[in-house]
């Protein structure tokens, strides 16, 4: 396990930029990973390299052909990372934009009067797209309620709302508010029992950094991630589309091949940085396992990340050393419970008698970076049913340390005084 190898933690942290300090603030602890993870140093180097290349991919010159090879390699790397034996990967403006495109395309190609199903736990990226195109195309939107106590939506909850005329479905893989992961495979199974040909689109943006994506096991039609949340950089999104979603009529240039979804000349550097991300997961998997198989290394990395982040969240919730954990602090309320097996590196809390914005500012003044979520169009669907106006999101990743947890607990404990 990662926490048993101090030298491995040091090696991990050495691969990321700005681990211990912010170029604008100075020394700080980074617990804002759900808002955007730290960036691999290799990603910065790769981005700078490709930003200076003037050639377009595909041109009849060595540079143009080399860029095609870079893109082809990145798509192959992504297929290993996400375990996709079919379908295609595309790059777009952002994860949100790609979710809109996939959901829109599905909605405009199914029968009018049919239904689209989604859940109340979802980020507005998918819920907004689903509601918008349901209205435009004359579909009925079916809303599956999530469980306020667990911060999740279950396969059983989807099953209760399913009917044979559901033609499109959306699923959230990980919540950026509660921090909980959903059982995508189980939800898909319930959907396909009732509507086998339903187009299923998954928002994997929050989940991706935890390294456990298995598209072949999910039986879905679309999956979107935001690379800046999985150790790459801002400025683009990545989506996987199944073969049957790929060939649905969609916006494209006249006369273009039917599976082409990308518009204009893409940035080869964005693709290349995803190869950097996949290489990092492979390296980590090689540190925590003896397997020589690429996919096996990625799976090993995902398991190690999950276990280590569980260790970090357990230390935060139940304490470390002589420091009391959040569950021992009377002035702190933990959203979705203290011992929730669905948790993926995020603990969201509220502090009695203090606004979350104020708490975040107090922590930030001590060099501890967290984030406040308000009951607005981004998070109101989760916070309002709990009677909360806001919350503090503490989001960890596998490069964080137990020592950093201890510093955060010390600061939070002092808020009661």
Description:
It is a single chain. With 417 residues, the protein is α/β, with parallel strands linked by helices. It has two domains: 2-38 and 296-416, Aspartate Aminotransferase, domain 1, CATH 3.90.1150.10; 45-278, Aspartate Aminotransferase, domain 2, CATH 3.40.640. The chain has 14 helices and 15 strands. The protein has helices at residues 6-14, 41-51, 62-82, 95-108, 124-137, 155-161, 184-194, 215-218, 243-246, 268-288, 294-318, 356-365, 380-383, 402-413; strands at 21-22, 26-27, 29-30, 88-92, 115-119, 140-144, 166-172, 199-203, 222-225, 237-241, 332-334, 346-351, 368-369, 371-374, 390-395. The strands form four sheets. Strands 4-10-9-8-7-5-6 form a seven-stranded mixed β-sheet, sandwiched between helices. Helix 3 (62-82) packs across helix 10 and helix 4 (95-108) packs parallel to helix 5. The chain is globular and about 65 Å long. The two termini are 37 Å apart.
CATH topology of the largest domain: Aspartate Aminotransferase, domain 2
Radius of gyration: 22 Å
Percent in strands: 15-25%
Beta strands, count: 15
Q: What is the helix fraction of residues, given as a range? A: 40-55%
The domain count comes to: 2
Structural class: alpha/beta
């Amino acid at each position: 396990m990662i926490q048993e190898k101090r030298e491995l933690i040091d090696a991990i942290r050495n691969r990321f930029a700005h681990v211990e300090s912010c170029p604008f603030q100075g020394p700080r602890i980074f617990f804002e990973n759900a808002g955007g993870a730290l960036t691999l140093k290799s990603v910065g180097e790769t981005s700078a390299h490709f930003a200076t290349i003037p050639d377009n991919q595909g041109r009849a010159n060595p540079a143009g052909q080399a860029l095609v090879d870079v893109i082809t390699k990145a798509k192959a790397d992504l297929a290993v990372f996400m375990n996709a034996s079919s379908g295609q990967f595309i790059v777009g403006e952002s994860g949100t934009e790609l979710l809109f495109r996939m959901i829109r395309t599905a909605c405009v190609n199914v029968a009018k009067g049919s239904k689209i199903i989604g859940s109340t736990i979802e980020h507005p990226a998918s819920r907004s797209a689903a509601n918008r195109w349901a209205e435009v195309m004359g579909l009925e939107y079916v809303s599956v309620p999530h469980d306020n106590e667990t911060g999740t939506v279950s396969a059983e909850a989807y099953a209760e709302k399913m009917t044979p005329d559901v033609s499109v479905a959306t699923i959230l893989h990980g919540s950026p508010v509660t921090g909980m992961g959903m059982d995508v495979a189980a939800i898909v199974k319930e959907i396909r029992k009732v509507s086998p040909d339903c187009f299923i689109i998954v928002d994997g943006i929050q989940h991706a950094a935890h390294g456990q994506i298995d598209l072949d096991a999910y039986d879905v039609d679309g999956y979107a991630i935001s690379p800046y949340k999985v150790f790459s950089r801002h400025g683009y999104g990545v989506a996987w589309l199944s073969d049957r979603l790929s060939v649905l009529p969609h916006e494209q240039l006249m006369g273009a091949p039917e599976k082409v979804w990308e518009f204009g000349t893409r940035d080869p550097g964005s693709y290349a940085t995803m190869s950097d991300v996949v290489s990092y997961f492979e390296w980590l998997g090689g540190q925590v396992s003896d397997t020589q198989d690429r996919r096996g290394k990625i799976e090993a990395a995902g398991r190690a990340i999950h276990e280590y982040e569980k260790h970090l969240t357990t230390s935060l919730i139940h304490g470390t050393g002589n420091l009391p954990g959040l569950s021992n602090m009377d002035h702190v309320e933990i959203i979705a419970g203290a011992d929730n097996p669905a948790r993926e590196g995020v603990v969201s809390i509220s502090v009695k008698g203090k606004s979350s914005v104020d708490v975040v500012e107090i922590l930030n003044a001590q060099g501890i970076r967290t984030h406040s979520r308000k009951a607005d169009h981004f998070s109101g669907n989760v916070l309002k049913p709990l009677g909360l106006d806001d919350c503090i999101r503490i989001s960890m990743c596998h490069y964080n340390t137990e020592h950093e947890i201890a510093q955060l607990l010390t600061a939070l404990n002092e808020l009661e005084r």
